[in-house]
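ok trying this again, last paste got cut off
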Amino acid sequence: MSALLARQDILARLRQGPPGGTWDLVVIGGGATGLGVALDAAVRGLTVALVESHDFASGTSSRATKLVHGGVRYLAQGNISLVREALHERTRLLANAPHVAQRLPFVMPGYHFWERGFYGAGLKAYDALAGRQGLGSTEWLSTARTRSLMPGVQPQGLWGGVRYWDGQFDDARLAVVLARTAAARGAVLLNHIAAESLLRNGDKVSGVQVRCRESGEAISLPARCVVNATGVWVDAVREMDRDQSASGEALRPLVAPSQGVHLVVDRAFMPGLHAMLVPKTADGRVLFAVPWLGKTILGTTDTPRADLPRDPKPFASEVQFILGEAARYLARAPQRSDVRSVWVGMRPLVKPTGEDAGNTQALSREHTVLVAASGLVTVTGGKWTTYRAMAEDVLDRCMDSGLLPRRPGDVTTQLPLLGAAPGRPIGEAPGEHLYGSEAELLRSLPGAQHWLWRDAESGQGGLSEAMVRFAVRYEMARTVEDVLARRCRLLFLDAAEAARQADAVAAVMVQELGRPVETAQFKTLAEQYQALP
């Protein structure tokens, strides 16, 4: 059974520190990479603290395209090593978290006579790279079979298609599961607590000064090693190091951010549980249409931008591109009024020396680990699929640099995450199945049969009062946004409905937290998720 995660208890553990007073490792950033590092280190027996300024996965890590994949387009670019690693990590992730990550069939429709054979051959190579860890064999489809598997596809001019297999997941729920698994292994993790500065011992980083965003309390976390895993914001933490160092040398930015936009429409536009991939749209970009939690995700874009907003907004050209391309490939063209939610994820693309920041296609999708002269370790880049391998790489670098004691690795390859148990397809409406083996615990909480929201299209799944209680008691949810954006994904599925449920969710949270819970800020955010430029 899961342990209650009371914030005051976690704060007390941070104040007290580990035996001896110094943490082996402090991680800044509670996204995919930081959580992976914390879990791996805790399993190796190191003392670990992780701080996240907002909520776990509240940045890029909750705004992915929801795919656990090797990267078909990276194969086309010739990046064989990246694809091979991702395909192997894909299999491990699906095995370790089957309640929130599962295999997904894709159909690649062909509208020119040569596409079916050409893309099919490439996908057979994709299968070959996966080897015995493949999820299913690629197969060529007739026109009739393509239409039967994807009843929403545009039939005019269709020359059949190709079916292949990849994976999908609920990214934010996976992040929360990672945080809770790490906590169960002894790590101390807390959200809504910001890293304000780096502690120093001479010219070396020796810990982190943090401040609780709820109480204002400041806490010092002395550490042997500090890992900066803040995604697109890693350069801001690196600036903390530079500002406090004696040299004050100019810092070359490590990240060239790019944003990806996703539009959510009803499942009626693409019925069934097959995803669609268009590998080359009119301007050469990729288009996905993915069934997810009872809706369909359309996307994504790849647009450079210089600023780093916490909640970025889509550009009009991006929305126009997605809707325009969807109209070419779906029998029923989605209109602006059909969009239930729009969200934007910032990607931390690694910027090589001398690279043009505007050319995001030329920037690296692989991760980078840097160890500064001060000992600050920075990791960025990569993707959700390879989070586990990234964590291993980070810890190996920390040990090679003498920042951490040497401990055996390969400890998470076959480590089931909390709640791991097979469930219903993630393409279906959200419900108790996403809790895996913890569904029984969920059903034991007050309000398990009181549904605040039900999925209108299917009449199944939704958000119960008990799910709100579970989010507060066991998943460290502190705000209405934490619940409706990341514990339950309603903000990402139907932003207007999320705004309507905010008061009811807040009322339950007040009972659990014993303090007022505001809704105005969340309702403003929900308006942004409804707005199309």
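PB: full thing came through this time. The radius of gyration is 23 Å.
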